Amino acid sequence: MLPILLAAVLWGSTGTAASFAPPEASALSIGSANMGIGGLVLLAAAGRSVLPLLHGGPRVWRTIVAGAVAVAVYPLAYYKSMDLTGIATGTVVTVGSTPAFTKLCEVIGERALPHARWVGASAVSTLGVALVVLGQRHPDEGAHSVWETVAGVALGLLAGASYAVYSYSGARLIRRGASSRPVMGVMFGVGGLLLIPVLAVTGGPLFESGSGLLVAGYLALVPMAFAYFLFGRGLAHISAGTAATLILVEPVTAAVLSVAVAGEHLDPLGWGGIALVGAGLLILDNSK
Question: Which of 13, 28, 100, 169 is the most buried (most CB within 10 A)?
Fold first, then answer.
């Protein structure tokens, strides 16, 4: 479980890192830089190890393409959701919906019904995430219209479903005998190629300043390339559904960093939510 938890902590730093981007940089440019450039880095790091996977036949390629499309959709939907609704709402809808979507993928693809301990752990942790968001104060939280909020929530659900699809696709390839390094390299590399045209169209303001280049570099190399390398290592040992529950650490990390670095406020309700997320992870750990 440790590689997944470390990856979730790194993912939780993306919102705070993105806040240092130039104001003119759009959510689409930040999202496409994050997973577009980072996906190509993962592909390059995998090197020749991807060749057997590329020759795996139509069945393998169907799984790769499904995962890669989900990789491309995820950052666009996630960052735009946060742009429309605020960091708190976008994060909780995306990450909070991910365990249910991932378990749905497993039920459909593997006929694997969730066990009671997983349901309990996910429910406790998801409630904790909701409390973290309710306990977090954002200065611009009242600036969003009803239609922006509805659209942002819908995009957050799309992002959660996309995460579920690519995590399940990666876990499925690994369970068939592929190692995590080429799986992450191919799936995120193809997804990165799909994002490059979006970055080419929207990335100008992001790359015109030193701060934008630093933000893009950090997002691509640390919470993307390195974190997804860790994520792939974890998927080699646990199910996608369990991984989806573990990543509920991400919004907790985001909340703590926003308080420590960005000067935002987390009231006692939010700290209680952090405790609930920890309790849910302990329940999950004891189910193994």
Answer: 169
Please count the CA atoms within 13 angstroms of the CA of 235 that sit on its side-chain side: 32
Q: What does the pLDDT profile of the chain (288 residues) look like in tens digits? A: 899 999 989 988 887 888 888 989 998 999 999 999 999 999 999 999 999 888 888 889 999 999 999 999 999 999 898 888 776 667 777 877 787 788 888 888 777 677 777 778 778 877 877 776 677 665 555 555 678 778 888 898 899 899 999 989 998 898 888 888 899 999 999 999 999 999 999 999 999 989 999 999 999 999 988 998 898 888 888 877 778 778 778 877 877 777 777 666 667 887 787 778 777 767 765 554
The letter for the amino acid at 47 is G
Rounded to whole angstroms, how far apart are CA atoms 178 and 169? 12
DSSP symbol at 140: T
Structure tokens at 251: 């919004």
The pTM is what? 0.81
Helix (H) or strand (E) holding 49: none
108, burial (CB in 10 Å: exposed 0-12, middle 13-18, buried 19+):
exposed
In angstroms, the CA 164 to CA 185 distance is 18
Calpha distance 221→44 (Å, rounded): 12
Would strands 265-266 and 136-137 be described as parallel, antiparallel, or unpaired?
antiparallel
